[in-house]
Amino acid sequence: MSEMSDEKLVFGVSDRVELIATILMAMAAIFTAWAAFQSAKWSGEQATSFSRAGAARTESTRFDTRAGQQAGIDVAIFTSWLDAINAEVQAGEVERVGSASDYVPTPGTLSAFYFDRMRPEFKVALDAWLKLDPLRTEGATATPFGMDEYVLENAVEAARLQDVADEHAVDAAVANQTSDDYVLTVVAFALVLFFGGISSKLGDARNRYLTVGAAVLLFSGATVVLLSLPKILPF
After folding, report:
1. How far apart are alpha carbons 83 and 85 in whole angstroms?
2. Less Cβ crowding at N or C end of the chain, within 10 Å?
3. Contact 215/192 with Cβ under 8 angstroms?
């Protein structure tokens, strides 16, 4: 009678261990599918972010190139304007002003021609520079290009787009790491499936407990990681 009771107990424990292993394997299979899906979605997010970063950098380069061209135009016309004024003063065509802040272009002169055709962005800086009377004011910037008022909108836009590109690059790196983390959970759940599967093949009860226990620990850790990771909903 005692032997029959022990036998029933052994079979009862064995059945419970097998039930636990079966539940773990079922849950691990479901979580593996979910983790694989999320890994694929985050890989796609990484590719999209890298694409956006590349597009923003391309646009940034375009605006930066345009800003460089405009700066070159400003330098050329400013130099031509100074040369024209100097030549006109020496030729007596215009009077030398006492202060640069008093400068007013003389109609019909070459210097006035250059002055009237300066770009608005540069004109603001030039006017501010002339008000400083740079020839007599100590510490004044040597040219209008050093003035705070000299701002190229294309350069500003280029810098903004560069910042956007950097943000997208960071997003891509985060997405890549998230995808790798999901792959790690897939590996962990695969081990759960392995330990759960071989537990039923082992004849020794102690070995069954050990393999199922390992499966429980792996499943618990992988589940905690899986739940903590950011998710992209399928809808």
Report:
1. 6
2. C
3. yes
DSSP sequence for 9-62? HHHHHHHHHHHHHHHHHHHHHHHHHHHHHHHHHHHHHHHHHHHHHHHHHHHHHH
**Residue found under tokens 């069954």:** 208
C-alpha span between 184 and 213 (Å, rounded): 20
For residues 226 and 34, the answer to whether their CB atoms sit within 8 Å is: yes
Distance CA 195, CA 207 (A): 11
Q: Are 158 and 67 in contact (CB under 8 A)?
A: yes
pLDDT tens digits along 156-212: 999 999 999 999 999 999 999 999 999 999 999 999 998 888 877 776 777 788 888
Query: Among 56, 74, 8, which residue's Cα sits nearest to residue 167?
Result: 56
State CA 33 to chain mean position distance.
Answer: 29
**Under 8 Å CB-to-CB from 142, ≥6 apart: which residues?**
134
Q: How far apart are CA 161 and CA 207, in angstroms?
A: 61
> Is residue 86 scored above 60 in pLDDT?
yes
